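Structure Section — protein described below
Tokens — whole-number codes for backbone shape
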Amino acid sequence: MYALIAILEDPGTMRLSESFPRRLLCSLTLSASALVLILFNSTLFSQDVAQPEKPLLPPAEATAALEVPDDLQIEQVLSEPEVRQPIYLQFDERGRLWVMNYEQYPYPAGLKMLSRDKYWRAVYDKVPPAPPNHDKGLDRITIHEDTDGDGQFDNHKVFLERLNIASSFARGRGGLFVLNPPYLTFYADANNDDVPDGDPEVLLEGFGIEDTHSVANSLRFGPDGWLYGAQGSTVSGNVKHYGVDEKPIRSMGQLIWRYHPETKEYEIFAEGGGNAFGVEFDSKGRLYSGHNGANTRGFHYVQGGYYHKGFEKHGPLSNPFTFGYFPMMKSHDVERFTHDFVIYEGNALPEEYDGKLYGVEPLQGRIVYCDFEPDRSSFQTSDIGHVIKSEDPNFRPIDIIAGPDGAIYVSDMYEPQIAHLMHFEGRVDNSNGRVYRLAAKGAKSDLMFNLNKKSSAELIETLKSPNKWFRQEALRVIGDRQDKETIPQLKEQIPTSEGQFALEQLWALYQLGGLDEEYAVTLLGHLDPFVRQWTVRLLCDDGEIGFETSIQLTALAQTEENVFVRSQLASSARRISAAQMIPIVHELIQHEEDKDDIHLPLLIWWAIEDKAESDKETIFAWLDADQIWSQPLFQEHIAGRLMRRYAQSGSRKDLLTCARLFALAPDQKSAELLMAGFEEAFKGRSLTELPQELVDALANAGGGSVALRFRQGDAEAVKEVLAAVKSPDTETAQKLEYVRLLGESKVAAAVPVMLELLTVTEDIELQKELLTSLMSYDAPDIPDAVIEKYNSLSNDVKEVAQTSLASRKIWTLQFLQAIDRGEIKAEEIPLAVVRKMSIHQDKRIGLLIATHWESVEGASSDEMKATIEKYSGTIQSTDSADRKHGKELYMKSCGKCHILFGEGGRVGPELTHFKRDDWLNMLINIVNPSADIREGFETFTVITEDGRIVTGFMFDQDNQVIVLRGADGQKITLERDAIDEMLGSKKSIMPEGLLNDYSEQDIRDLFSYLRSSQPINY
């Protein structure tokens, strides 16, 4: 399916037609990037590139154009009109082939696209309604059957039609699960007559549809009875149970997810990867998906893993404390891309083809096959060759599966141009589609069977089949049938069974609900490592295990020799309580052989990090034992990350935790490891707000920097800091650090140094820091210097100057007098600052405020209502919007205080996970910021004993200090002992009138960006 990506992202993959304009190719000296820009902007591009090198061939001729090795044969088993745009294939228990026909692609029916970005992520005018009241589209699910045993599908029927962007399905549990983003639905068919029993049950909602070539996809049952699916890179997720008022599980971009049909639980199984479009399980139940990039065939996903992704395009990982991620599977250099593949274990092809990976290459029109070998706790591939090639440029393989007959089946969307760009230019031809069967030379296809007619005992025997398809399908039918009478037989056989059959029986027992904890613990000693691995996983999946089970898992972690079992122990440890997790992790860390493993060090770290906040005392009790500090895996992968975790969080509580962590270090080497983690966390950050306890701990650990010595009152360090601030040779970043120190420590000699620097520097950030630090000093020459400098400052710096001048009574009076003299314009002072000045109880101040401002209360409710109505019409306009320009507007206004997609200021609430598709609520909050102040962002006004007034959000606090962050983005730390009064306010510090100077087009552009589900980085 990743064939539907915009090929412009990698122009080297494009096939240029003979009719391609020669004038675009004449200058061979053009860089590749320049050529892409020319192509993208050329009107001829949209006219000519989509023309095929050869005409579309009839089905028989297209098949004849396919090339396969001499010992294999290929035949076309389906074509249009029976199938069109076949995106997903699945055989059922009767040997029938079910096909998802993705004919509605790329535009969802019934929706209007308001805007789209460079990566074709769209914003639509509404969320499509759920089935059965959905906007009717063209997608179909068809069934194809061989009724006479000749290997040909001669009976065709439609199970569902008029679907709208339906990507895949999974048969089972008495019906058909259909993944129809933004919904997961279930169509009951209890009597198995291929006719839905009624309207569907809508199970989940919230799968993103921003990009219809990346929607949630590839639904299929896993061996544990969960439904697994992928989510592509250019959509978001806000998934929850349909119609239920609950907090959604949010995600951004590529991941693997799963849903349990019985418990109705949805969870993210692993995060990251390529533009995930495909889900494959090998015989041991390990999960894989392909990639839309080069130099790999895809990703091996482990439970709870975080994987590499295109961070700039698709946003960060959801956990900011991962401090690492897993790579794609290792490979030699290969062209992009194989978005989907199958690991063949069908036992019907010649021996050299068994156990290989077969991947679709839609851009090249080929099927590649590769060696597939372990690489520590993961895998690596090496290409062997191609089992299908074609000179027909319209051959576009999309899905690939192994069938019950041991053949490989390939769906072909058969398009001259599958670039996503061309689809959005209206050039898609949804009338074509073929399905091919690749088999051993001379093989006959046997699709005449019915697993439903087998007894439960016979189904268990089918689990011995050498063909993986039959084992997987028999397991699914066992899960459907729920014959509890087979449980005793399975329990008796598993301990003495060997190899694959033992593992299959374990899965069957679990799906039948017969894997009780007492019995499962006995399987931790099974001879087969994959029985042990899956027993660990199934025991811990619900997060609850008993005391005895915990002891046995810890013992297994100590003695286990198989790296895949140890990997699962690390994954599962994260899901259980901290008290049970720590002993398991402790034993895993002793395995020095895993120090350089692909997965284990990070899995162990993620298990610890998951409890770093909730169970800190349990972790610290463990760290109090010296033994763990000497282990190589702990030294290289855990110690520094743990310090970095608390240091990067940045709250005073966590910084005090850093001090405790330093105190636990048993030796200098351990202290140095912690110091390295601390320094990594504080790269580019200020040391000025560190608690004294941490300053002392850093000094004791050897962190005797100038800043640390200054914090400790060292006279020589004070001289060094002042000299550095004065010197023109000091780097700006260093000056910023030292100016912050001077603001916190109140060194009397610092005032003339900072004022002198304020008069000469033009650096905006340095000006801000100087103005903020000078607030700490009650010196009479400060307001004069600031007022004199005021009009030469940028608007951003003026905001900080206003905050500074309004902080003290005498400064405020001097500020207002300058306004009264006409030296400073009253109209550029925000009402929030005027309100702050009015807090000073002084008649002279009150009179000057009344002279220059009629009201400090802001707009009336009626005025705001009229403004909202006016802007509503603009936002709902059918005129186009420019999200790139919207981002520019955002960064100049909202972005000063709010983070969106990792960019912006940390003053107000982060907007990334705000319900931004509700444009009206966003508009109300912008026009009337005080209408609904979010918890944690209430405004406080603090009056200090020395007469300062400081206003802002409560950024942090403990029993010694409070930290306020003002509307200007600056943080001010105040000792509680120095506070005279602290008052809460119902007035937001967010200014009113942010949209006043915007044109209608500006407002459309801004709201288009605000409603984006993923970042825009271009």
Summary: Confidence is low (pLDDT under 50) at residues 1-53. The first strand starts at residue 66 and ends at 67. Residues 59-440 form a domain with the Neuraminidase fold (CATH 2.120.10.30). The CA atoms of residues 21 and 44 lie 7 Å apart.
